[in-house]
Amino acid sequence: MIEQVRSVLSQTAMIPPHIATLPEDANLPEAGLTSFASVQMMLALEEHFDIEFPETMLNRRTFATLGNVSTAVAELTRKAA
Amino acid sequence: MDAKTFDAKSLLDDLFDNGVLFDSGIDGLYGRSGDFEEVIERFEAMVLREGEKDGATRIHFPPGMSRPALEKSGYMKSFPQLAGCVHSFMGGESEHAELLGKMATGDDWTEMQESTGIAMTPAACYPLYPTVAARGPVPDEGLLFALSSYCFRHEPSKDPARMQLFRMREYVRIGTAEQVSAFRESWLKRGRAMIEALDLPMEVDAANDPFFGRGGKMMAASQREQGLKFELLIPVASLKKPTACLSFNYHQDHFGETWGLKFADGSTCHSGCVGFGLERLAIALFRHHGMDVKRWPANVREALWSA
Question: Source organism's superkingdom (chain A) (predicted)?
Answer without folding.
Answer: Bacteria
